[in-house]
Specification:
It is built from 16 helices and 3 strands. It is mostly helical and 392 residues long. Among the domains are: 52 residues, no CATH class; 203 residues, Orthogonal Bundle (MetI-like fold), CATH 1.10.3720. A 3-stranded antiparallel beta sheet has the order 2-1-3, with no helix packed on it. A hairpin with a 2-residue loop joins β1 and β2. The two termini are 67 Å apart. It comes from Azohydromonas caseinilytica. Belongs to the binding-protein-dependent transport system permease family. Keywords: Membrane, Transmembrane, Transmembrane helix, Transport.
Length: 392
């Protein structure tokens, strides 16, 4: 039996071959158990170190969760497209051309409507572009005009049409006309713009007032909180509809008057949620640390507490917009909303009720309201899931 010691990891069934480090060096040095790979294979066998994931802020994580909700994400872009399309309504649906050339002169009627005398007419009144005489003038060689996609505005009436009003959908009016001969597609487009921008303004004002009132109540608490709570309870008991009827009978209806009156009540619901968030956050450690560092109440509210209390505010924005659109539509339906000269979805619903046989008035209007409400609801659901920190 050989007295050669057994080295762990090295076979004892035979003498060491020249391929082993001990045999190659011919000494008694211990065997290197970590066999180094050849130099040519070092780069191929090396494993790249794992990189740490990129840091994402809470807002970036919320946006990533929002994008995972495909229905809400698509609804957001669809709503933005509708908003942009309605905002540029004059460039999409207008009875005045975008650009016209007559007798070597350039005209831009969409911005400045020339008189008829500039186009060969006899009167110095603004040009009626639906007049067959004006159409015949531009049929002459060298004269041309570039019209919008829908050659009708919200208030224009075709006095030369031979069909009684309301006229059904046809080649001249794709969605027909209302009871006064105005194009339905143009009325819907302009009415949607009025409704959506009014809802945005009302939501912005109500959110600002609600956040301010809720922040004061929740952060300071005590007598201020109790006093404002009693004021809100008394003010909430005032019949809003009766007050609107009284003001509508005294003042001339306008969008500004409606915005002021509806803003007087539109902030109370949101202030309760903001108050609850401030009551919870003011007792947390980071607020106590900010007070210990000597920060003022204003700095603590706007830098620390408010950013961490905006979750219910952002979540409820689409639903507040839906309520604002329905409020304006309801008031217009009752005749307490915008002036008669302003296009309105509620006024179209009222016309549809008075002309039930003209289905092209009430059906597209109702469909537009349903689609708008659905889009805002899907966006609101996606925002609620996006700001839910329990979701990964």
């Amino acid at each position: 039996m050989s007295s050669q010691p057994i080295v762990p990891g090295v076979s004892d069934r035979g003498p060491a071959t020249p391929s082993t480090p001990a045999a190659a060096q011919g000494g008694d040095r211990p065997v290197d158990l970590l066999v180094q790979p050849p130099v040519g294979e070092a780069a191929d066998t090396a494993v790249a170190p794992a990189t740490a994931p990129a840091y994402r802020s809470p807002n970036q994580r919320a946006w990533a969760r929002f994008k995972r909700n495909r229905l809400g994400y698509v609804s957001l872009w669809a709503f933005i497209a509708m908003l942009v399309f309605a905002t540029l309504a004059e460039l999409v649906s207008n009875d005045r051309p975008l650009v016209a050339r007559y007798a070597g002169q350039w005209f831009f009627p969409v911005f400045s409507n020339p008189p008829e005398t500039a186009l060969g007419g006899d009167f110095a009144t603004p040009t009626d572009w639906k007049d067959p005489f004006i159409a015949a003038q531009f049929d002459q060689p060298g004269n041309w005009r570039l019209t919008t996609l829908n050659p009708h505005s919200a208030v224009s009436t075709d006095y030369f049409s031979k069909e009684p009003d309301p006229a059904p959908p046809g080649a001249r009016n794709w969605l027909g006309t209302d009871s006064q001969g105005r194009d339905m597609l143009a009325r819907l487009l302009y009415g949607f713009r009025v409704s959506i921008w009014f809802a945005l303004a009302l939501t912005a004002v109500g959110t600002l007032l609600g956040v301010l009132a809720g922040a004061l109540q929740g952060y300071f608490g005590g007598k201020l909180d109790l006093t404002l709570q009693r004021v809100i309870e008394v003010w909430g008991a005032v019949p809003e509809l009766y007050l609107l009827i009284i003001f509508a009978s005294i003042f001339e209806p306008s969008l500004l008057l409606l915005l002021i009156l509806l803003s007087l009540w539109g902030w109370m619901g949101l202030s309760d949620y903001v108050r609850a968030e401030f009551l919870r956050n003011r007792a947390l450690d980071y607020v106590k640390a900010a007070r210990a560092l000597g920060l003022s109440n204003r700095q603590i509210i706007f830098r620390h507490v408010l950013p961490n209390s905006l979750t219910p505010v952002i979540t409820f924005l689409p639903f507040r917009m839906s309520a604002a659109i329905l409020s304006l539509t309801s008031l217009d339906f009752l005749g307490l909303g915008v002036p008669p000269t302003v296009p309105s979805l509620g006024e179209l619903l009222n016309q549809g009720k008075a002309n039930l046989d003209a289905w092209w008035i009430i059906v597209p209007t109702f469909a537009l309201l349903v689609v708008t409400m659905l889009l805002l609801t899907f966006i609101g659901d996606a925002l609620r899931d996006a700001f839910d920190t329990r979701k990964s």
